[in-house]
Amino acid sequence: MEVKELDIYDAIEFTNKTENKNKYATFVRCVSEDKLYLRFIFLFNDGVYFVKYNKREGRAKTYKFVCDLETIEPIIYLHNNNLTVPVNSLEDSSNPSLAIIDESLL
Predict the structure, then answer these.
(1) Residue 39 in 3-state DSSP?
(2) How many other C-beta atoms are found inside a 10 Å radius of the C-beta of residue 62?
(3) Computed from CA positions of residues 70, 29, 4, 44, in that sequence, does the dihedral angle turn out positive or negative?
(4) Is the dihedral of CA 56, 62, 103, 32 positive or negative?
(5) Distance, CA of 66 to CA of 36 (rounded, Å)
(6) pTM, rounded to two decimals
(7) What total number of domains does the chain contain?
(8) How far apart are CA 98 and CA 100, in angstroms?
């Protein structure tokens, strides 16, 4: 089966199945490109990842956002070399936080 041939709702249902979560990346977003880099965020196997592809070197680095006591939300914003990452407490979701990461250090 070709996932790209499914309509959006069927594709979401297909990729959310337990047996497919570790086979397919989903929710690709926050795509940004300049002369040197292509950057984007994606979900894979319930993890949130950031990819930074150096077009000149032809090399990609992939970073997984991890926080043991918090939930990393996949709605990450890249602006002026800063990644703004929403983080929610597993115990108290009424008090979310934002982590600001200098993307140029990655």
Answers:
(1) strand
(2) 11
(3) negative
(4) positive
(5) 26
(6) 0.78
(7) 1
(8) 6
Contact status, residue 46 vs residue 21, Cβ threshold 8 Å? yes
Which of the two residues, 16 and 90, has the higher pLDDT score? 16
Q: Which domain holds residue 38?
A: 3-105
Section 68-95 average pLDDT? 80
Non-local (6+) Cβ contacts of 3 within 8 A are 11, 14, 15, 24
Residue type, 11: A
Tens digit of each residue's pLDDT (9 = 90 or more) over 21-52: 788 887 888 888 999 999 999 988 888 999 99
Contact between 39 and 52 (Cβ < 8 Å):
yes
CB 66 within 8 A of CB 50: no
